[in-house]
Amino acid sequence: MGAGHAHKLYRHGHSPVHALPPHCKIAAVFCFVLIVVSTPREAVWAFGLYAVLIAAVAGVARIPAGFLLKRLLIEVPFVAFAVLMPFVAEGPRVQVGWLSLSVSGLWGAWNILAKGTLGVAASVLLASTTELRELLLGLQRLRMPPLLVQIASFMIRYGDVITDEMRRMRIARLSRGFEARGVRHWGVLAKSAGALFIRSYERGERVHLAMVSRGYTGTMPVLSDAAAGRAQWTRAALLPLSALAVCLLGWTL
Amino acid sequence: MHVPDGFINAPVSAATGALAATAVAVSLRGARRELAGTGQGGGGAERTAPLAGLVAAFIFAVQMLNFPVAAGTSGHLLGGALAAILVGPYTGVLCVSVVLLMQGVLFADGGLTALGVNITDMAIVTTVVAYALFRGLVKVLPRRRRSVTVASFVAALVSVPAAAVAFTGMYALGGTADVSIGKVFTAMVGVHVLIGMGEAVITALTVGAVMAVRPDLVYGARGLARPLELRTSPLTAPASAPASAPAPAAAAEPVPATAAKPVTPTPAAAPRRSVRKVWLAGLAAALVCAGGISYYASASPDGLEKVAHDQGIDKNTKKHATEDSPLAGYSVKDIGNARLAGGLAGVIGVGATLAVGTGVFVVLRRRKAEGAAPAAGVAGERA
């Protein structure tokens, strides 16, 4: 389970951003998003500066822009919501071409688009510069309950196994000539889901027994507890601190 | 429905974050209890992590299973209700929360600051609502496998719109967009009632599939399984006839494997649930739903009425024939408080439906009884 399980979201590299301890990065990203969210939406230029900051971090981490932009697509459903907003919101209306749009709706759409996109970009940067296991270790060092970290790590570890099992079931269905076309075929798919649940649960029982037979008592041993030094914290704090300066400017100007 | 950053303002995000953290802490405790009891060996707290982790992986995978609806479109399971029914409410909350956390951190699906909102909405509300409804229904319905399926259908059906209502509530408290609550409510609940239908069908089918193979794994149906009954043919029984005297008591309890004495099949040893009790409970539930929920729901006009009002369509419509009926527009006349009137109308409606339904039932029953009686009667007259 060790090597070879790097997830597709991670992009291997040796940049200064990759080298930072994971908990510093998580804290920095969280603070950054918090600051972005609390910026007034009227300060349009502030969001531009945030985007520049994100782009700078991506440059330092040597993440290509195309990779970042492709991962931003996850936001699309809410973009659709934001696009609708100027049409349904209340308040005074403004005429743009032949469309009558609500002013506050436009502001709301801008607010969601800007803050949501920046938040997604920041998390994408975090996920693409930090390995999964490190991410979980970082969460544990940030005082997330160890049991929760264990559950999450089991989920990540066996996520691929379970997904593969589902894929095999799909291939088995296909090779028997089944093709789900509509609501009438839900019964078959639901039976697959039920079988998948039973297999996952039973696999959990087997994993537990295997672990117990190797001396597991409910806690995972800590292999490396490298605390972050002051220099590393300072480097990680560069992003949120500069964002904080922008945010304060946004409130005062 | 993953809420991104900046959609809900900071105070509400922080409050829901605290709520989510508390709920996750509580369910960490509860999950140990839920996962410890099953299976052979019955390990302790150390079973929690592998089992909950694998269930979370299952939910993550099953959300990728596409269910085609019609040409081109397809939906997928949300999984809150399914998790609650299959592994219990605490483990359910825990697993869905972990899935949301990982989706937020890894896939950037749902904002980091909106994590509390997302967990409260999609993990806590769906799971708790679904499980409460499920337990209630299973208690009320007859103890059969089918009623578990029905109960999971209803639980999943209600859980999705309930999450939409919760989302609207959070939006009302801290939404950053300037869209009226009524519109958000109508849109969210309208869409999610449809989604809930699909969720309900899939959840019920999936629970049914698991029930057919491993009924002991379905947490919500754990108390329902009949204890195994040891039956021997009457030919071999006589030798130990005196020993089988306490049979009625033994039949009601799980028969220990060591004390495998031949138990003669005793009919009606299991306590028959009185129909009257079920009937009364159902009536109470219907009245509460009609009276209580319409008390809240009837305050705003429904989607169609609202659209009609906005577009000015309703100016042209003719007056409805029963406009002057005392229940017109689902509210009782001459009662000032609109909500109270709505609730009262709901209660009266349930009463009327019940009266008609019972009437039909009684008539059918009498006819059936009459069908059997004449044969005897005619025979009597002939004699």
UniProtKB/TrEMBL annotation, chain A:
Keywords: Cell membrane, Membrane, Transmembrane, Transmembrane helix. It is found in: Cell membrane. It is a multi-pass membrane protein. The chain crosses the membrane at residues 20-37, 43-60. One of its GO terms (biological process) is cobalt ion transport. The keyword ATP-binding does not apply. GO terms for cellular component: ATP-binding cassette (ABC) transporter complex. PANTHER family: SLL0384 PROTEIN (PTHR34857). This is Cobalt ABC transporter permease. It comes from Streptomyces natalensis ATCC 27448.
Automatic annotation (TrEMBL), chain B:
Keywords: Cell membrane, Membrane, Transmembrane, Transmembrane helix, Transport. Signal peptide: none annotated. This is PDGLE domain-containing protein. The keyword Transport applies. InterPro entries: CbiM/NikMN, PDGLE_dom. It comes from the Bacteria. It is found in: Cell membrane. It holds the Pfam family PDGLE. The keyword Thylakoid does not apply. The chain crosses the membrane at residues 7-28, 48-65, 77-102, 114-138, 150-173, 185-213, 278-297, 340-364. It is a multi-pass membrane protein. GO terms for cellular component: plasma membrane. Residues 276-366 form the PDGLE domain. One of its GO terms (biological process) is transition metal ion transport.
